[in-house]
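re: ur msg from earlier - yeah i can do the 3-methyl-2-oxobutanoic acid complex, just paste it... oh wait u already did. ok heres what im feeding in:
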Amino acid sequence: MSVHQNVKKVTTHTLQEMKNEGEKISMLTGYDFSMARIIDESGIDVILVGDSASNVMAGHETTLPITLDQMIYHASSVVRAVNRSLVVVDMPFGSYQGNSIEALSSAIRIMKESGGHAVKMEGGKEILESIQRILTAGIPVMGHLGLTPQSIYKFGTYVVRAKEEEEAANLIEDAKALEESGCFAIVLEKIPAALAKKVAETVSIPIIGIGAGGDVDGQVLVVHDMLGINNEFSPRFLRKYNNLHDHMKTAFESYIKDVRSGDFPNESEQY
Ligand code: KIV
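and the outut:
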């Protein structure tokens, strides 16, 4: 067992030590108390309160509609469940792109009102001023490069990013800028594995991949996807660890059948 599996509370420093010692970092999304409790009990290192809540919890097509208040609601539910994991909270679209003062006040609201431990922001050089202001206030920041879903209308599709040399070179420059500014880790989403490996070797902070291959410092998946709750989403990078969609549907169908037949509740299930 690796040393850091035993730490009582994971911090940003733990993650850096894990990278330094070649121990892989595990991260999953979480949005509510009950699920976060199970994820934390399993020994995950980081729970990301992702703005993917907009998709998987609220049913929106993109991550753009979720609000700062809604993110704070999800994050505070997760924080109440967690004993060990580091809780990172996504700053939602519109809460930091305007200017650095607005970005700082959004980050402060997240930290104060949810009790989260760090924030995550999508983007590179274009948001550096905001990142620096937030870091100056003592709030740890995780970066997010590659496919950044808040910019989906700029990209036009969810295909793999940075396949071309120019975009790949820009991404490496952005990763260096995020490291220099003081970000404690970076998520790389849906980029070629060789490029992700290069970034993980170039910067000294942890690189957490999703659809970015195995040669990075850790992995993140959306919990509903890896549990197979959402059976309409099966990208190449996703490994499904369960088929909860079918298991849950079977349970619901059995319940309905038992209610309709009068089999539930039986004598031992009543007072
Ligand atoms: O919102 C989210 O779930 C994310 C992960 C895909 C990294 O940002």
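cool cool. The first strand starts at residue 25 and ends at 29. ping me if u need the other ligands too
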